[in-house]
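Quick question, first post here. What does this chain look like in 3D?
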Amino acid sequence: MATKKEFDIFDHELVPKHRVLSEDEKEELLKRYHIRISQLPQIKASDPVVVALGAKPGDVLEIKRKSPTAGSYYYYRLVVED
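> Answer (accepted):
Ran it through. Tokens below.
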């Protein structure tokens, strides 16, 4: 009987690289852009990527996306409860 291989969401070509920012990095991000944490776009704690990373509400994710013109760029999202 064959065993079922666990699926890793980060192996998919359409899922960009994600990482959780440290508290220092989060503060630097807010200072750099002169924003409050509530002004960041949100992502639900039940999102498969958030679950895979083990992120919790209040964490900020850095997402590195590919761009045909810029090469790559970073996007930030605040993890919120469902």
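Residues 15-80 form a domain with the Eukaryotic RPB6 RNA polymerase subunit fold (CATH 3.90.940.20).
The longest helix spans residues 23-33.
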